[in-house]
Structures are given as structure tokens and as C-alpha cells.
Amino acid sequence: MTVHDLFDLTGRNALVSGAGRGLGAAMSLALAAHGANVAVIDAADESTSKTVQGVRELGRDALYIEGDVTDLAACREAVDAVASGWGSLDILVNNAGIALNGPAETIAMSDVRRVFDIDLFAMLQLSQVAYDALVASGRGRVLNIASIAGLNVLHPQKHIGYNAAKAAVVMLTKTLAVEWAGTGIRVNAIAPGYMMSPAVELLKHEKPADFEAWMSMVPMGRPGEPDELGGTAVFLASDASSYVTGSVLVVDGGYTCT
């Protein structure tokens, strides 16, 4: 087997949440480019349809399950669609997430709960629903999208709910990795830094001073592009990372080094 073969995902089936745009779309296309069929679960959105079309243009099968990852029934539908329709579920990418800002002393608890519902609880729920299929695969891989916010406090923005939820994602990843190690499932996380997602693009124009402050804290001096997560996702989903579990791979241009 060559090094190239280790990254080959041909014949494997992936389910990606929140794949309509930005990081989720980029990772979906990277998995497909390396041979995986890709199903996405996301709200009804034209951008998600474009992701699905992009997967098909790469010569892979694609499915679009419209649904909310906080809805247990929608999670079951998505897992069943992949495992039954394609014969296996091999890769789960928990990417769906939101961020709601607010000072710690005044942020509405409803906003904090909403962030935790999507960024943490839905991640565990979808992983639980996918567990049997991932075990049956014999090569199950779970990729949780954490953030540098789970490792360092982001500032100057007020991000207590997001910071806390992403920190919990890190420990969720490590716990699942340990508890599920004997099943053949590997669980890892990616912690992106400031990536040029649609949300960051918007903030760059709305709050240019804040954006420049963020970039001044990134040793590489620039935001990451969504495509720059593709290689990391393929590595963790493939046999190239066969002895890696419970790890958090940071992709941040050096931000957390300072």
C-alpha cells in the first residue's frame, strides 16, 4: 500500500451536518474528491443543493436530507438514508454550529441554550444515532468540528456561550474516543481558527477594526480559506490516521501559539 492509498476513501460513505456553505461544503467536497459518497443534513437552502451538485460533479453519489440536527427524527432519517441506501455509514462529520454573541453578565440564557443545543447536544445526539451503523462499518470515523474558541478565549468579541460550547466539544471528542475505542470507531476533532466563512466575511465588512485586531493575533497574518480544512478532514477520515483518536487538530495559522 502506498502513502497515496492511505488517503483513498473510495467506497466509503459520509454524512456531514451543516454542509451548505463554508467549512461544511469544503469538507464535503474534499471527502468526495478522495472517493467518498457524501450525504448532507441541513436546513432547506439553495447553497446545500450546490454542495450536493458539487459532490455529484466529482463523480460520487450524494444525498440531501433536509432537517434540523436538534431533531432526533431528522437525525435518524439521515443515518438510515445512508446506512440503508448505500449499505454503510463510515464517516460522520459533525459540523453544524452557530455563534450568538453577548456579554457574560447580560447574555440571554435562551441564546446560550440555543448555542449548546446546536453546537454540543446535537453533535452528541447525531453521534449516538450513528453509533450502530459506524460500528457495523468496521471503520467508523467521527470528525467533530470544534474551534480555537474551545482552547483560547476569543476576544474582543463577547463569546461566552460559543467558547464554553466548543470547549465542551473538545472533551466530548476525547470521551467518545476513549469509550468507543474498542468498537473500531475513531473520534477526533478539528479546531479551526479564523476561517473566511460567510459569517467571518460579513464581520470583516461590518466590523473591520475587529477583523484587523483578529488578524494581528494570527502569526500567518491572514484568515484561513475553507478549502484549507479539506486535507485535515480527509486525513482524519482515512486510514492515513489509523492510530489517531481523541486528538484535536488545530488549523489556525498559529493563533493558539501566542
Automatic annotation (TrEMBL):
InterPro entries: NAD(P)-bd_dom_sf, Sc_DH/Rdtase_CS, SDR_fam. Signal peptide: none annotated. It is an enzyme of class 1 (oxidoreductase). GO terms for molecular function: oxidoreductase activity. Its EC number is 1.1.1.-. Keywords: Oxidoreductase. The keyword Iron does not apply. Belongs to the short-chain dehydrogenases/reductases (SDR) family. This is SDR family NAD(P)-dependent oxidoreductase. It comes from Tenggerimyces flavus.
